[in-house]
Design goal:
The protein has helices at 17-28, 40-53, 68-82, 105-115, 117-132, 154-176, 207-217, 222-234, 244-256, 261-268; strands spanning 8-11, 32-37, 57-62, 87-90, 96-97, 136-141, 181-188, 200-201, 239-242. By secondary structure, it is an alpha/beta fold. The chain has one domain (8-268): NAD(P)-binding Rossmann-like Domain (Rossmann fold, 3-Layer(aba) Sandwich), CATH 3.40.50.720. The chain is globular, with a radius of gyration of 22 Å. It comes from Yinghuangia soli.
Length: 295
C-alpha cells in the first residue's frame, strides 16, 4: 500500500496515544478515517482535528473492543458507510502492573478482554471486508513485552505474546490462501502515551510512581511511532519495531535468549517475593470423615 489517498483506515484506540497519532499521520496522506475509542469525546476530538490535517472524511464511534458484538457492528457499519475498508489498525490497549500472586482475576480478565480479545475481534470482524478490497492491510499492535517476560507484567505479556502468535499465524494463512491482505505485527518499545496513567495496579503500588517511572524510560513520541508504522505498511513489513529500545530488545533476545533475564530483573527495579506465601496448615481429618480407598 504505497498511497493512502482516498483509502479507508479503521483505527481502534484513536482517542489518544499511538492511535491518535496514526489518525493524524494518515490524515496527512489524505486517508478517509473510521476512528473508535472507549472515550467518545476523545475520539470525536481526534476525528475533528484529523480533518484539519487533511483527512477527506472521518467518522468517530464509541466502541468497547472487549465487546465482540460492538466491534462487529462497527466493522460492518464502517464498510457500509465508506463502501470499503483498506487498512485496519487494532491498537487499543491498557496496562496492569501486578505480580502473578498479587493480580486479581477481574483485572487479568479486563486486560485480556481489551489487549487480546479486542485484537482478535477486530481482526475477525474486518477480515471479510479487507478481503474484498483491492488494496488491504491489517496491523495488530503487540509490544516488546510480546518478545520477553517482564516482572509484574505477566498479564500484559500474556496478551502481547498472544497477539504476536495470532497475527503471525494469520499472516501465513493469508499467504497460503493467496489473499491480497497484507499483515503486520508491531512491537513498540517505550512510547510517551498516557497508558501508564490509566493503568491498573496491585494494592500497595503507587500509580503515580509507576507512571513517573514509565515516563523516564519512554523515549519515543507517538508521532514518531505513527510514522514508523506507516512506513512499515508501505514496505509491507511482517514485523515493525518502534523505537531503539524495541530493536535492542529484539536483538538481545535473539542473541542471549534467557541470558537476558538477569538484565531484565535488574532493570525492572522492583523487589519481588522470592518465595510464595506459606500455605495454610493441613487440617487433620477425623476418622469418620476420611475416605479409605480400600474400604
Amino acid at each position: 500500500m504505497q498511497d493512502f489517498a482516498g483509502k479507508v483506515a479503521a483505527i481502534t484506540g484513536a482517542g489518544s496515544g499511538i492511535g491518535r497519532a496514526l489518525a493524524y499521520e494518515l490524515a496527512r496522506h489524505g486517508a478517509r478515517l473510521a476512528l473508535s475509542d472507549i472515550d467518545a469525546e476523545a475520539v470525536r476530538e481526534t476525528a475533528a482535528i484529523a480533518l484539519g490535517h487533511g483527512a477527506s472524511e472521518t467518522t468517530a464511534t464509541r466502541v468497547d473492543v472487549a465487546d465482540r458484538h460492538a466491534v462487529q457492528a462497527w466493522a460492518d457499519d464502517t464498510a457500509d458507510y465508506f463502501g470499503t475498508v483498506n487498512l485496519v489498525v487494532n491498537n487499543a490497549g491498557v496496562a496492569l502492573t501486578a505480580s502473578v500472586e498479587e493480580m486479581e482475576w477481574e483485572d487479568f480478565e479486563w486486560l485480556m478482554g481489551i489487549n487480546f480479545w479486542g485484537v482478535a475481534y477486530g481482526t475477525k470482524a474486518f477480515l471479510p471486508h479487507l478481503r474484498r478490497a483491492r488494496d488491504a492491510h491489517l496491523v495488530n499492535i503487540s509490544s516488546v513485552f510480546g518478545l520477553m517476560g517482564i516482572p509484574t507484567q505477566s498479564a500484559y505479556c500474556a496478551a502481547k505474546y498472544a497477539v504476536r502468535g495470532f497475527t503471525e499465524s494469520l499472516r501465513q494463512e493469508m499467504r497460503l490462501s493467496h489473499s491480497g491482505v497484507r499483515v503486520t505485527t508491531v512491537h513498540p518499545g517505550g512510547i510517551k502515551t498516557n497508558i501508564a496513567r490509566s493503568a491498573r495496579a496491585a494494592k500497595g503500588l503507587e500509580a503515580g510512581e509507576l507512571a513517573a517511572d514509565f515516563d523516564r524510560i519512554a523515549r519515543t513520541s507517538p508521532e514518531r511511532a505513527a510514522r514508523i508504522i506507516v512506513r512499515g505498511v508501505k514496505r509491507n513489513r511482517a514485523r515493525v519495531f518502534v523505537g531503539p529500545d524495541a530493536t535492542l530488545i529484539d536483538v538481545g533476545q535473539r542473541l542471549l535468549g534467557s541470558g537476558l533475564e538477569p538484565l531484565v530483573r535488574t532493570f525492572a527495579g522492583r523487589s519481588l517475593p522470592t518465595a510464595a506465601p506459606p500455605l495454610p496448615a493441613p487440617v487433620a481429618l477425623r476418622s469418620a470423615d476420611a475416605t479409605d480407598p480400600a474400604a
